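[job 4471] stage=fold_predict status=RUNNING
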Amino acid sequence: MQSVVAGPILPGMPTLLSFGHGFSARALGHLLRPQGWRVIGTVRSPERLRDLEADGVDGVIWPGADMGPLLDQATHLLSSVAPDEAGDPVLRALGPEIAARATRLAWVGYLSTTGVYGDRQGDWVDESSALTPATRRGRLRVEAEAAWRAIPGLPLHIFRLAGIYGPGRGPFEKVRNGTARRIIKPNQMFSRIHVDDIAQVLAASIARPEPGAIYNVCDDDPAPPEDVIAHAAELLGLPIPPAQDFATAEMTPMARSFYAESKRVRNDRIKDELGVRLLYPDYRTGLRALLAAGD
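[job 4471] inference complete, writing structure tokens
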């Protein structure tokens, strides 16, 4: 089954084609549509089409649909699709078609991760730092970034996202139900970013394109993960979960892999080059806003 929710196509209407239209892309759509944009988003299931329709997004199930006509309509392209061992799924399926339209696109964005920098034992990194991924996920992202950059003439912008949180993706539910854990690993530092700040960074880049640019997208306050859990508990007026030593804590391999890297990520470029003023410059302001909104 494939389905496109037909939207009006007007001469000169800016049109974003969003591959893997998920949490971050949806927040961007909320900014663009009131400005007269058409947003086309790909999803994998019919159930997700209903979510897109509720947002006023034209939805298409992909893989499965013929993307050529939609690529012809797009003025801007965003990919949030994660790579796999065979490479980037979007480029694997549509690389030649995207390359053929490269010079007709005004802006292309690829959502990557700060995991490409690997483990820095708590030290700072910026966009000029060497890419030394410590995990499989990070290695695949490095390869995917290179694959996108290899397309001649593509007006590509790479966004390296820190840990994403936002409505429905904060720590409050786990704190409330007693499943939150404060895992302690010495010198463990993570950078984070609220989804609404991701959206405003992307929108700022679209308004001020700089093909070839790479941006770290994170807040101003890298912090140990246990501090975030403790602050969430304090905001809720609940007991702070007890500390657990990372070395002896029972964790899934996936959960443990997130502790394989410790670094602080600089975000000067999104401020200096894009003029972004973060809505939530640290996790404390972000968590307070989520709680006030009923998260």
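[job 4471] summary: The domain at 15-166+192-218+264-279 is CATH 3.40.50.720 (Rossmann fold).
[job 4471] exit 0
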